[in-house]
Amino acid sequence: MSEETLTGSPSPATAVEHVDVLIVGAGLSGVGAAYHLRDKCPGLSLAILEARQAIGGTWDLFRYPGVRSDSDMFTLGYKFRPWASARGIAPGGSILQYVRDTARETGVDQLVRFGHKVVKADWSSAESLWFVTVETDEGEKVISCSFVFGNTGYYRYDEGYSPSFPGVERFGGTVIHPQHWPEGFDYSGKKVVVIGSGATAVTLVPAMADTAASVTMLQRSPSYVLSLPSTDPVAATLGRALPKRWAFPIVRWKSIAIASFIYNVSRKRPELVKRILKKQVAAALPKGFDVEKHFSPTYNPWDQRLCLVPNNDLFKAIRKGKADVVTDTIETFTETGIRLTSGQELEADVVVSATGLNLLPVGGIHAHIDGEPIVMNQHLTYKGTMLSGVPNFAFVIGYTNASWTLKAELVDEYVCRLLKYMQDNDFQTVTPVAPPLTGDEAPLIDFNSGYVLRSIENLPKQGTDAPWRLFQNYPKDVKLFRRAAIDDGVLRFDRVPTGTKLGEGRKVSA
């Protein structure tokens, strides 16, 4: 949603179709949302609008070498369709197939409208409807709906973040952003420099090391890394000993408990966790490697997300002499590589700019209420999934300290409970009503990663107390989303005599 004001708001007469719930996005979140809505709210009509031509979202977009999950698949996978492999850290292609198989097996794939990019959404209080403008190959069209459910993630798909590098125009090699990896790109025998120190960089370096002549990870500052086996030994053992329906919940809750424990200890005893992480790294690297310089960040663990290193692959590449880490800043690109502030020069044929994402909340949709633009940073988030003052709208933002899907499925279940409550009580609209502001509000994503800090002014805010404050705690959120009363005194429910009721999904004449 954007603060830009667009004229020419559509009217009811311009809508060519009406559905009860419109899901935006057919990635991991959108497929899950559609499954839950069909399962728990079978009387509602719905459609999924997907701007691209394929199901999969992130996992269809990212094609760089070694792309994989940065959360275990027992929690990143769906609760309703358990991840079947003991391999908890999975390659991107396997995850993409899993999402597509889930969509096909549940019939969700039949609900997807490909090449449908949502560009504008206009709420009419008189009609109690959203009028959603969609760009297609055949031109623009308008679809009306009672409820919009955003499952677009939080970053911009068509453009990754690329800082302005001095002298890059004279570099004689190839510069690539991982978000736009060229199909079939051959880097064999080439000198590669990967700029960055986050999850993408620590994935790319070992994946390219065996084929490239050399791979150097060039970082301005280090990140914390945690080495884990890609195959979960508990999952492997229980998978052999128990039926899947018993083994999966045990493994899932084990993963939730371990992730929560690591996060909580990191927040309460950061110096202890620092020592443990550095000790693990030092044990995996060659003797004498400067761990303090290259793997000791200035921030505390979980101020930014921990980077996973499955099976010590990054450290193995360094030990074999296939990869290296340089911590420095860029003075300028040259014709043959990069000259650093220290004076060191890195020769390169290929430079990969693993420099992060551009945030784009709710897919960058321009939205209005009765002609007034919705400005994201002027709204509080209710339970991290609705916006104060914005009727009949929800969105999914996953956890920053755990897997995305854990939070997404709680939101899905909550939205289903909410819609059923509205149907049962003959309400057409629901709107979170914000408390008075105190000045202590924080951004929705309260994280100091670069991609968040660059866009912090455009994000909605969270308040000081629940349900306006995020817990980042799965057990607490289970109570908040699954068990708390729907009518909690914070949501305002309305009956609109002229409005459209949920469950009245219908065709509308053009």
UniProtKB/TrEMBL annotation:
<keyword id="KW-0503">Monooxygenase</keyword>
<dbReference type="InterPro" id="IPR020946">
    <property type="entry name" value="Flavin_mOase-like"/>
</dbReference>
<comment type="similarity">
    <text>Belongs to the FAD-binding monooxygenase family.</text>
</comment>
<dbReference type="InterPro" id="IPR036188">
    <property type="entry name" value="FAD/NAD-bd_sf"/>
</dbReference>
<dbReference type="Pfam" id="PF00743">
    <property type="entry name" value="FMO-like"/>
</dbReference>
<dbReference type="InterPro" id="IPR051820">
    <property type="entry name" value="FAD-binding_MO"/>
</dbReference>
<keyword id="KW-0274">FAD</keyword>
<dbReference type="Pfam" id="PF13450">
    <property type="entry name" value="NAD_binding_8"/>
</dbReference>
<protein>
    <submittedName>
        <fullName>Flavin-containing monooxygenase</fullName>
        <ecNumber>1.14.13.-</ecNumber>
    </submittedName>
</protein>
<dbReference type="GO" id="GO:0004497">
    <property type="term" value="F:monooxygenase activity"/>
</dbReference>
<keyword id="KW-0285">Flavoprotein</keyword>
<keyword id="KW-0560">Oxidoreductase</keyword>
